[in-house]
């Protein structure tokens, strides 16, 4: 499983494992976790469109409707997980 670094605004760097990724409505989403295996907290990140060819910027999905919809897609892609928003 791939582990990638995310630069946090004013907080340094965080490393996450990318469990899955998908494209919904033209927007790229990542399902990430800090642990490679076992029960743990996960985050759903969405890519923020940029005007220039720069590094991708992601933010945590927090809006309830969007979070539930994207979590449902990831659950169907990964049959052995359950995501609780």
Concise summary:
The chain has 85 residues and is of the alpha+beta class. The protein contains 1 helix and 5 strands; from the N terminus they run βββββα. A 5-stranded antiparallel sheet has the order 1-2-3-4-5, covered by helices on one side.
Radius of gyration: 13 Å
Please tell me what the overall shape is: globular
How many helices? 1
Order of helices and strands: EEEEEH
Total separate domains: 1
* Rounded average pLDDT: 86
**Tally of DSSP β-strands:** 5
Proportion of residues in helical segments: 10-25%
Rounded to the nearest angstrom, the distance between the terminal CA atoms is: 23 Å
| Unreliable residue stretches | none
Order of strands across the main sheet: 1-2-3-4-5
Main sheet summary: 5 strands, antiparallel
Strand share of the residues?
35-45%
* Class by SSE composition: alpha+beta
Any overview of this molecule?
The longest helix has 14 residues. 16% of the residues lie in helices and 44% in strands. The relative contact order is 0.19. Strand 1 and strand 2 form a beta hairpin. It has one domain. The protein has 85 residues and is of the alpha+beta class. It has a five-stranded antiparallel sheet with strand order 1-2-3-4-5, with helices on one face. This is DUF1292 domain-containing protein.
Features of the shown structure:
5 strands; 85 residues; alpha+beta
Secondary structure: elements and pairs:
Elements: E1 3-8, E2 12-24, E3 27-33, E4 42-48, E5 57-60, H1 64-77
Antiparallel strand pairs: 1-2, 2-3, 3-4, 4-5
